Amino acid sequence: MHAQGDLDDELVNVEFHEIQQTISLEQEYEKNSWGELWSTPGNRHRLIILVSIGFFSQWSGNGIVSYYLPIVLALIGIKDNNTQLQINGYLSIVQLVSAVCVCFFVDKVGRRPLFVTSCIGMLLTFVSTTIPLARYAESPNSAAANAVIVFIFLYYIFYNMGFCGLLVSYSTEILPYRIRAKGLTVMFFCVDLSLWFNQYVNPIALADIGWKYYLVYVVWIAFELLVVWKYYIETKNTPLEEIVRFFDGDAAIVGGHAATAKARHLAGGLGDEEPGTPPEKNAADPAGAAAKEA
């Protein structure tokens, strides 16, 4: 892609050696214990993000509609199966379109702004859903019922901004290679726990307290917003090798830094990274330069 098929291109070989060197150095620490996930301040920061994003992805109120839409619609007097099916079909289309569209803005807008906007939007729409639910419970009317449906659709647009496509991609990029598998295991374990809760607790709560169960999620989404605001970092336009600096400082960068700078110089036609150093030496030994830099 970078050299139009030329396997001997200097830029391509610099990038290739950069990848080799980064993986090689990180594999030296591959045999690590689970305790490494919380052994340093940087890893504890990562763990907070992984645990929270796992729970937030399923505990943001989406589990109520995803699994129990007929029960929610029954709260506003919509009990006809065909009508429920139509609403569910339209909602699925809106979710698909919004989720796909957001993918094109991740690298332009950034991860943190999408997460924060998602939480704010979910909080506002959930509050806006709860109010007409309560009004309909007191005095059934079509205006309140229609408002609930509209805000359910808006809610999912905001949900898809943060917790649909970014669940796995963001979790992966904040984890260095040596703890990536364990970190993702923790994240998916939290997803499974929250799914278990949704399956066995949500229907009981909806049946017992009805619309008041929405108040629980209003408080919870407000908590989500605080966690996202405090702990979620921005990784836009940052190479994977250098994301570690946001958690562990500049000294934690393992390889890649010097070679990336060299590749940028080569791509821009700016000559050698180090004055007086032959180009072939820098290209042949980017790993050594990167190791020296690290």
Structure description:
The structure is a single chain. The protein is an all-alpha fold. It has 2 domains: 10-30 and 255-293, no CATH class; 38-235, Growth Hormone, Chain: A (Up-down Bundle). 72% of the residues lie in helices and 0% in strands. The protein is built from 15 helices and no strands. It has helices spanning 10-27, 41-56, 62-75, 81-103, 106-109, 111-138, 142-162, 166-173, 177-200, 202-209, 213-231, 245-248, 257-268, 279-284, 286-293. The longest helix is centred in the middle third of the chain and has 28 residues, at 111-138. It is elongated. The protein starts with 9 loop residues before the first helix and ends with a helix. Mean pLDDT is 84; it is low at 270-294.
Give a brief outline of the structure.
The protein has 294 residues and is mainly alpha-helical. The protein has helices at 10-27, 41-56, 62-75, 81-103, 106-109, 111-138, 142-162, 166-173, 177-200, 202-209, 213-231, 245-248, 257-268, 279-284, 286-293. The chain has two domains: 10-30 and 255-293, no CATH class; 38-235, MFS general substrate transporter like domains (Growth Hormone, Chain: A), CATH 1.20.1250.
